[in-house]
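I have a small job for you when you get a moment. Can you supply me with one protein entry, sequence and fold together? It will help me judge whether the discrete encoding reads sensibly. Write everything out right here, beneath this request:
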Amino acid sequence: MARRTFLSFCYQDDHWRVQQVKNMGVVEEQPLLSANKWEEIEDQGDAAIEQWIDDNMKGKSCLIVLIGERTAKRKWVKYEIKKAFNDGKGVLGVYIHNLKDSDGNQAAKGQNPFDAFKSGDEPLSKWAKVYNPPYTTSSNVYDYIKDNLADWVEKAIELRS
């Protein structure tokens, strides 16, 4: 049975790449919103966004941050990381910049979003491992993520147990 997870990412840049990960069928995740639906929630303000995140993170065992070029700088990604960690969920990151987007383009590698966080005196990276597929060809990156994501999720959950 696939673990229930929450996907965190930069929608504007990476929705096509994230859809590829979602289509792998390796983990169960929250529904991905269309741009229009996200805008509708966004127009209601920060409290509505926080409520959507909180509601969709309930019952999930792990947060998977799908890291693209600008993911680490996104306000809501930071909120999701903090919430998931404080709620005791497994937390991990996967670089997706080498998956092609809808135009067939890859992106530059982004910063590790966990670098900005600490738990007490410990860096969050003690609990939040980041995986960077060792390939530059999109199809190889896809296969590597598909073959390993379920194991990475289990390891992240185990680290928090």
Summary: Residues 138-160 form the longest helix (23 residues). The chain has one domain: 4-160. The chain is about 45% helix and 15% strand. The mean pLDDT is 93.
